[in-house]
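Milestone 3.1: sequence recovery, worked example.
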């Protein structure tokens, strides 16, 4: 967070409308972390003087994104918190196959315009380095936002969600076992096509 960001957040915290609740806690936490991590960045929007959307990434997450941003997972399927705010997690995988959290956010809603705004804030934090592929669970609003903000990125559906949907609609267990093997197995292209 820059000094200007901190000043804006401090000003926001002083407003009576948000002295209590998640906004105060979230911004206070980020301000305290910014003192420890000079690379931490956070962006937020206000609506009627109240916190509307908040996106943040610490220094190590930003560094990880610069190294491992080829494939970006964009997910809001986490259970909503007590404030009924969707949590968005931007993640990827490092060279050891471990999950890296690149950025998180609390959203006002799950509409396309909100996803567009949050993706733009995410890209600003990450110096506008575009991923090659974005993986989601198939939400239409999210898909349209990706097309708008990341037009050169290929959009793919998450294998876990695809398989779960197949399990709900296909009742042939032998077919499902074969599908799972194909979806999660490692094959050379010719071997995959043969199966």
């Amino acid at each position: 967070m820059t000094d200007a960001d901190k000043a804006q957040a401090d000003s926001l915290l002083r407003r009576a409308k948000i002295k209590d609740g998640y906004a105060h806690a979230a911004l206070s936490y980020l301000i305290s972390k910014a003192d420890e991590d000079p690379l931490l960045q956070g962006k937020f929007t206000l609506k009627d003087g109240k916190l509307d959307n908040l996106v943040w990434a610490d220094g190590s997450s930003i560094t990880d994104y610069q190294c491992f941003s080829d494939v970006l997972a964009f997910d809001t399927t986490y259970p909503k918190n007590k404030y009924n705010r969707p949590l968005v997690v931007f993640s990827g995988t490092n060279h050891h196959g471990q999950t890296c959290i690149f950025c998180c956010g609390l959203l006002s809603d799950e509409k396309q315009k909100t996803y567009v705004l949050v993706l733009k804030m995410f890209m600003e934090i990450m110096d506008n380095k575009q991923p090659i592929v974005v993986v989601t669970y198939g939400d239409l609003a999210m898909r349209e936002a990706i097309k708008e903000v990341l037009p050169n990125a290929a959009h793919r559906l998450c294998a876990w969600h695809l398989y779960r949907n197949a399990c709900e609609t296909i009742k042939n267990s032998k077919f499902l076992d074969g599908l799972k093997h194909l979806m999660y197995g490692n094959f050379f292209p010719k071997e995959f096509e043969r199966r």
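Confidence is low (pLDDT under 50) at residues 12-20. The helical segments are 3-14, 22-36, 59-68, 112-125, 140-149, 159-169, 173-184, 189-194.
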